[in-house]
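If your schedule permits, I should be very grateful for your opinion on a structural question. I have a record of one protein: its chain in single-letter code and its fold written as discrete structure tokens. Would you kindly read the sequence against the tokens and tell me how you understand this chain to fold? Thank you for your consideration; the sequence and its tokens are set out here.


***
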Amino acid sequence: MNLRKTTIKGEQYLISAKENKDDYFGVAYSLLKKMFVEMTQLAKAYHSTKFDFVDYPFAYRERQLDSLMLPALSKLCKGIVIAEYPVERQYKLDDDKRQDIYKSSGRVDYWCIYKGYSFVIEVKHAYDNPSNQSTTDALKQRWLYMNATQLQTIKKYLSSFGEATNGIIRLGLLFVSSYMKENKRENDLRTELKRISQDICTKKPTKTTPDFVAGWEINTKFMENKNGDGLFYPSFMLISKVFSPIKHNGGKNK
């Protein structure tokens, strides 16, 4: 994937996606790009001169990202979005010689409808220190587990959904906060995005090779998180896996 630099609403981004002319992928690309831009625009409100504070949601963990992601999705999906959507997971145990199918209750982070498709979304968050020039095992493991396990164990259950859409697209989203201890831009966002994208797909590449990546190069005056951890955040990234639509009971193309 070739990262293209673009300016949207005064902010600098790098965005890339794999070549895929299928209708579902174009819709997924549109949702991911617009959602990420909307989230970054919302994030700027947390750098407030009026209230004299700077405390970004992406400086924390996955749960705090809801502060940005839920309003972004709600705006794009015209309110049709549910967080923590209940699902049933079906799986096999590695040490079970009979290969019985087990079931358990769980949740996906988001369900929504956008441009005629249903989306089921899992979200992870991780940190990256570009000065280390290496991707942490924790980051790689979160990506692997989300796409190779979590989003695979719900396929059967999703086929029972009743909404009249063109299919159910599963999205695995990994948000990465790039951080530094000093207020100087030592990282190259393009290099950082490429490194992470390559490092996370060494295992089970058919399920873990990214399909969409985006990075926001944060303006120097917005980098400091002074009311939180005191670190500096030069960039915020999104890496996503887009799985082909699942045909479901209520679907138009079942």
